[in-house]
Hints:
The protein is of the alpha/beta class. The chain has two domains: 1-33 and 41-75 and 165-178 and 204-257, P-loop containing nucleotide triphosphate hydrolases (Rossmann fold), CATH 3.40.50.300; 87-163, no CATH class. Helices cover 32% and strands 27% of the residues. It contains seven helices and eleven strands. The strands form three sheets. Strands 5-8-9-3-10-11 form a six-stranded mixed beta sheet, with helices on both faces. Strands 2-1-4 form a three-stranded antiparallel beta sheet. A hairpin with a 4-residue loop joins strand 1 (4-13) and strand 2 (18-27). It starts with a strand and ends in an 11-residue tail after the last helix.
Amino acid sequence: MALLELKNLHVALEDGTEIVKGVDLAVDTNEIHAIMGPNGSGKSTLAYALMGHPAYQITEGQILFLGADERAQKGLFLAFQYPHAIPGVTVTSFLRSAINAIRKARNDGEDDPVKIPEFRTDLLAAMEKLKVPRELASRYLNDGFSGGEKKRVEILQMAMLKPRIAVLDETDSGLDIDALKIVAEGVDDLVGTETGALVITHYQRILNYVKPDFVHVFVDGRIVQEGGPELAHQLEAEGYESFGAANGRSNGSNSGN
Length: 257
């Protein structure tokens, strides 16, 4: 059984509009999966549904993480397309609280807070590797950050929290080449025998740096074709319309991303 499994997943908005229309997907450790689709195809809806966002209702099928329906604090991580600012909460406080919550969940509710010297050593090492300026650690999370700073801090969170499955929702959006390479290196460093990744993207660009094992073409709320890394290059050359037309699917006119 894979770490993360989607079985005939259907997801609707609160008004009943169906966005995700029957997705089967399995993501395991030491694997990088890429979901590529046009704007409006439902990619971000899928990402939010994976994390249990209350605005997105699972109307049919299942999301199984580590073999169970419950996913919170068990190691499923989402890097947002547009990270939110949290005024009043510093990056350092946020990360320590998140790490301690995960440690408590994995220890069946027993408190095992990370030691401050250990946390500081790990944080400074990760910030240096990801080229995150040290002063960001004492600033409020994403408050006044540039787009590149927000994305780097998202990857910093991923590096510190060490999730079992990392979901990156269009993390490449708005990044310059240097920032994109740093994000890609962070993903590559994380994925291994204990971690897998699901990269959701519109463009092939990030896949020049994050090398996927599997590519899934997502059109109108469905996976319409699957393959290896070569499929991303085919998409770049042919565009999404040919895949939608070839599979008899519509052009992704729903409200999901």
